[in-house]
Amino acid sequence: MFTLHDLTIKKVHDGLLSKEFSALELAKEFFEYIAYKDKEVGAYLTLDKDGAYVMAEKTDIAIAKGEEIGVLSGVPLAVKDNMLIEGLPATAASKILENYRAAYDATVIEKLKKENAVFLGKTNLDEFAMGSSTENSAFGITKNPHDLKRVPGGSSGGSAAAVAAHMAVAALGSDTGGSIRQPASFCGVVGLKPTYGAVSRYGLIALASSLDQIGPLTKTVEDAAILFNAIRGKDEMDATSVDLNLESGIWNLEKVRKLKIGLPKEYFVAGLDKEVEKAVQNAIDSIKSLKIEFKEISLPHTKYALSCYYIIMPAEASANLARFDGIRYGSRAKKAENLPELYKKTRGEEFGAEARRRIILGTFVLSSGYYDAYYAKAQKVRRLIKNDFDETFKEVDIILTPVAPTPAFKIGEKTEDPLSMYLSDIFTIPVNLAGLPAISIPVKTELPVGFQLIGKPFCEADILSLGQFYEKISI
Ligand code: GLN
């Protein structure tokens, strides 16, 4: 029987210290459980038993020697397959990278290796992180562990499903427009998108470089704080990363009570699913019971966020994906008469439909004659969206909103209609455009639903602290 697989980071650490189990036993149990459970969920693309056992033994040796171990030492983690772990595949769920193996470690991986964390394997995603359901993967669909007929959300659907189904203690995902928070909401786990620049993007296969951030998917807010603290910080390999003296650690209730929370009227509109409305209202009521002040606020440019994102993101994606040309990376078309034909065939055959759609959109909005009308204008609108947040944060410390307009939808429900798929990110995208930190925290409901706390730049401590208090009172 499986007894260890549903532990949190904190409990694994305690169990290792009290010698209830060894790190190797723990890793073995996870692989046994994955062999049984992942047949139905399909969260993983690659498993790395050998690598995991080597890492687990490091922890066991340290404990046997009486050395102190860090809180992540020996903890089994899953990693979205768009981050590089040296020697392992990194497919980004695309055929074009099917046979690619990472030549180096992403900075987040390097940091976690120093902590002796254990990597169980790489998880499924929408191709190049383009999507909201993990249905755009070239290697199969991941299912929502709470209801196998439904999607786990996306694009970090594999990581969210792995944590929700207890096939990993925690996981890493990436978030460009909601890809950590929306699957966290759909799968009933916690997902944190850090402030842009808080975590290095080196070794993350880029979707849209001015929006992408790596962050944790975990079972508790406390675990999210632990993992975030381990991966954050300035990295000379990512010029956009910064070192800030971020506050960490748990706050007391008195300090949390001083936070003011804003409820933006534009985010509580008709069309919001009843279940979501109820769940978010429950969260608001619970937080109110802590005697925290709420205030209605307005973010008037929110209504342009989706349009703005679907210009900026494809523009950056089309530039980033230009490197996949059949020469420098990944697969190559078998037959071609000349170089331009080789490019065309490789890219035409190996990219999936959504990747092709975004490359075409992005190339169009950047082309001369259209650049000013679309791309330059979208950049100006982005500024207005950011200004809304800056103004609001003069009055409140945290903004509370839904994560997605609906709970997890059925597999296949939105695949024919890209626009309705894009709409599922309506509440998460403004946060990426403004570069802010935000967390999705599950509300206890039948089908999982999360609520979102958005913080001021580099104030992860605010949302993590309030989140931890919410968790305590909602159990
Ligand atoms: N679902 C959004 C998109 O398709 C966000 C993706 C992401 O955050 N990686 O672009």
How would you describe the overall organization of this protein?
The chain is an alpha/beta fold and 475 residues long. The protein has a single domain, classed as Amidase signature (AS) domain (Amidase signature (AS) enzymes). It starts with 8 loop residues before the first helix and ends with a helix. The mean pLDDT is 95. The chain has an eleven-stranded mixed β-sheet, sandwiched between helices. It has 16 helices and eleven strands. The structure holds glutamine. Glutamine binds next to loops. One of its GO terms (molecular function) is glutaminyl-tRNA synthase (glutamine-hydrolyzing) activity.
Which descriptors would you attach to this protein?
39% helix, GatA, eleven-stranded mixed sheet, binds glutamine, 12% strand, EC 6.3.5.7, 475 residues, protein biosynthesis, globular, alpha/beta, 16 helices, Amidase signature (AS) enzymes
Describe the global form: globular
- Mean residue pLDDT: 95
What is the first-to-last residue Cα distance? 26 Å
Helix percent band: 25-40%
Bound molecules: glutamine
Task: Compile the SSE list and pairings.
Blueprint: H1 9-17, H2 23-41, E1 44-47, H3 49-64, E2 76-80, H4 107-114, E3 118-123, H5 157-164, E4 170-175, H6 181-187, E5 190-193, E6 213-218, H7 221-231, H8 253-257, E7 260-264, H9 274-288, E8 293-297, H10 305-320, H11 339-350, H12 353-366, H13 372-392, E9 398-402, H14 418-422, H15 429-434, E10 438-443, E11 449-455, H16 460-474
Parallel strand pairs: 2-3, 2-4, 7-8, 7-9
Antiparallel strand pairs: 1-3, 4-6, 5-6, 5-10, 9-11, 10-11
The structure holds glutamine.
